[in-house]
Amino acid sequence: MRIETPQQLTRLRKDCLARFNRHPQKIHVCCGPGCLANGAQKVSDELKKVIKKKRLKGFSVDALKETGCHGFCEQGPLVVVEPAGTFYTRVKVKDVEEIIDKTIRRKEVLERLLFTDPQTGEKIENYRDIPFYARQQRIALRNIGQISQCDIDEYIAVDGYQALAKALKKMSPQDVIDEVTTSGLRGRGGAGFPAGRKWSTCARADDSPHYVICNGDEGDPGAFMDRAIMEGDPHSVIEGMIIAAYAVGAHEGYIYVREEYPLAVVNLQKAIEQAHEYGLLGDGILSSDFSFDVHVSRGGGAFVCGESSALMKSIAGEVGEPRAKYVRSVLKGLHDKPTVLNNVESYANVPVIIDKGGKWFSAIGTKKSTGAKAFSLVGKVRNTGLIEVPMGTTLREIIYDIGGGIQNDRPFKAVQTGGPSGGCLPESKLDLPVDFDTLTEAGSMMGSGGMIVLDDHTCVVDLAKYFLAFLVDESCGKCVPCREGLYQLYGLAVAISEGRGTEADLDKMEKLSDTIVISSLCGLGKSGPNPFLSTIRYFRDEYLAHIRDKKCPAGVCRELIRYEVDPQKCDGCMACITACAQNAITGKKKEVHTIDQDACDKCGACLAVCKRDAILVL
Amino acid sequence: MVSLTINGRVVQANKGEMLLSVTRREGIDIPALCHHDAVEPFGACRLCMVEITKAEWDGWTNYVAACLYPVEDGLIVQTHSSKVNELRRTVLDLLLARCPNSPEIRQLAAEYGVTQTAYEEIPDADNCILCGLCTRVCERLGFKAISTVGRGHDKVVAPPLKEAPPDCVGCLSCAQVCPTNVIQYEDEGNKRTIWNKSFELIACKECGKQTITRDFAEALSSQRNIPEDYFELCDECHRRELSVKMGSIVSWSREAAS
Ligand SMILES: Cc1cc2nc3c(=O)[nH]c(=O)nc-3n(C[C@H](O)[C@H](O)[C@H](O)COP(=O)(O)O)c2cc1C
Ligand code: SF4
Ligand code: SF4
Ligand code: FES
């Protein structure tokens, strides 16, 4: 069925909405990657089976939705009963029958499945009252968790494609660009370049054809914002791209999806098919004379493929290696033609901006970083997961209010933002508002929105080493400063972590970093030394402890620590003796054990098994 | 035409021209290991970095690779500022750690004052600096017999599957273009060996000197529509034959005229 006019779309929306709200109660099962890994599909299948079996009045399997990632992955599998917002955590197959019998049939709440606020110890029923959700403002993530993963009717029911109709019927391409410019939207993929300005340059470029590309390569380890959007709400990305294409005069587009995201590819392709059927993609969209089609392109499987020039080469079928360029890709991009490249989250914001207006959007966030930003909050924080907060929210609010603080109440040490080539910020920076410019000034960056929280058990030298190893591995190897420079920088960090470093090495590393930053060809090399630069900036003392005292204060770097048994605490239970693969621990039952330092290979197995905290790390 | 200032001197250049070609014309020596006029600029060695600014940039400067930076009107360029030299020194120092035994790298590094690398030498490295000239020249000739394999620090230049490359015609372009003379070959009698592949060398039917390989001759004649027997003569004998022909044309026309 083709939708020919905006009126038809409005009618369809009404029908869809009626169908969407037909059931007085609905069950949303989170089928995001985190919940699926914990068995969400089995829970959902069981729910369907039980619903069919019980034949409830006013309730059928249609009232069950398998949605995208709700964000609170830590607590999954998640099941939400709407409209009450009853929020069940860690749901198992054996809970299903009771959920149907009690919550659906009798509107009773199952206490034991509710979330317990770790701060107050109280059970919270409605997810909207849980601090994790209450402090968020979801714009790009607006529909995820609210609608089925891949159903255009549900997308239309929640006002989907209304912005497209508005753009095509009531706005000129320039009006669209102006609205996006007014919104102040900056690219969510890393550099924070103003989207309006990029679109405007492309629209004015003489050469043709023009292309629009969506960057769904999401290479930062641990990040999954874009994945959640592509899997959970693919239509919002597609609608954003169609609007962008209309604004810049493109008729063809590509969504470049990371190799490791097969479900995103499937869902995007399904969504593209559905949009074609409705005439929202293809020739003469909504009876206008505007035509646009979009293809899904599978990623080249390397981190650097997310870099704009490498990505465009990869789409064109060449090796995904960055190309040196002093002509920007908005002018000479894919096939050397004017190209708009934006990130998944950037596009997902566009329909809302067109719908509610650029002014509405720019009122959220800070003056220079408008709107909200999605983050994947991971590491040693209690509530890990996917969040979206207004720009300008402080790191402290994100980590403590939304994230619930540090696991096991350990002290906070640092937060790594911006992915592997981002930076590490210490406690003194916790009250910084999170926006593009503030993070950059502080020596880190927004990046695409990865946020890794670290506690006092993290050694910054070890951390720098870890990220440098990642970048050495992912450097494409084309240019000398990145290929050889990061390799040497990594080697020097290893030397320090093994107690072989000198203070002169630190100077050498700083000078080398400077050269890598200035002279590398692409952004990977240019930001490559950041793991070292940001940690040396804030944690120089910890580096010096490794160099001067040959000590790792966090007790992490193997060469600089030793394990000993605390005779006061050891009760001779022999657990560590069994655990030690090197047979380095000796002792009789109920007598204090000892560790033979020569045999010990510092694996930490004893520390992990000792129930009495009797293993000391010195 | 555009006008720019290089090291304090105003020079003219063609629009769209790369900075490196202008500095070369001006006789300014900038190291450029990954550049060759036969192929597109690549920007990999980063030795050609120069400092640029413009009057309207308010003192802000930038560092760019001259080999692929298109000249602009009003550009002010410093090719050997102390910062630029420092960048080159570090890059050369890194290359020296990678190829401590390469005479070419040693010499260039010494010109920038680096005689001993400050970094850890790479164990069992060969002298390849991964400039990509060999693979790009090979591709440019239409053969694509070799390519870079892998990424990052483990990247190497190699034929497919590291076996004798089926598409190699033994033209030696890669070996000739290599700035550090890494690519080994051997000519013995009428046999040439490169990349572990053997080729028959054609002997000139006049003077008997070896010319090019049979595979290269076949490739050239089909690529460029040259008759295959053209390669039966070496260049010198071709020239001699041509002058004989020319001579007979001249004497014929004289005869005709008289
Ligand atoms: C090494 C490297 C990796 C990158 N990876 C990604 C990525 O995975 N996703 C992304 O959106 N942008 C990535 N970028 C940034 C893109 O080059 C580009 O700036 C961005 O996609 C533009 O979209 P935006 O303006 O909407 O952010 C990467 C950049 C570099 C240098
Ligand atoms: S900076 Fe690194 S990733 Fe980028 S082109 Fe150079 S070697 Fe490749
Ligand atoms: S073999 Fe020579 S030409 Fe080829 S990449 Fe290595 S240094 Fe360059
Ligand atoms: S010659 Fe310009 S980067 Fe190598």
Write structural notes for this entry.
The complex is a heterodimer of chains A (618) and B (258). Chain A has 618 residues and is an alpha/beta fold. Chain A contains 25 helices and 19 strands. Chain A has five domains: 18-130, Glutaredoxin, CATH 3.40.30; 152-362, NADH-ubiquinone oxidoreductase 51kDa subunit (Rossmann fold, 3-Layer(aba) Sandwich), CATH 3.40.50; 372-455, Roll (Ubiquitin-like (UB roll)), CATH 3.10.20; 460-549, Up-down Bundle (de novo design (two linked rop proteins)), CATH 1.20.1440; 562-617, Alpha-Beta Plaits. In chain A, 40% of the residues lie in helices and 14% in strands. The longest helix of chain A has 18 residues, at 480-497. The N and C termini of chain A lie far apart (71 Å). The model of chain A has no long low-confidence stretch (mean pLDDT 94). Chain B is of the alpha+beta class. The model of chain B has no long low-confidence stretch (mean pLDDT 92). In chain B, helix 2 packs antiparallel against helix 3 (103-111). In chain B, the strands form three sheets. In chain B, strands 2-1-5-3-4 form a five-stranded mixed sheet, sandwiched between helices. Chains A and B meet through helix 18, helix 19 and helix 20 of A and strand 4 and helix 2 of B. The site of one iron/sulfur cluster has 14 residues of chain B, from helix 4. One iron/sulfur cluster binds at residues 304, 322, 475-479, 482-483, 520-522, 524-525 of chain A.
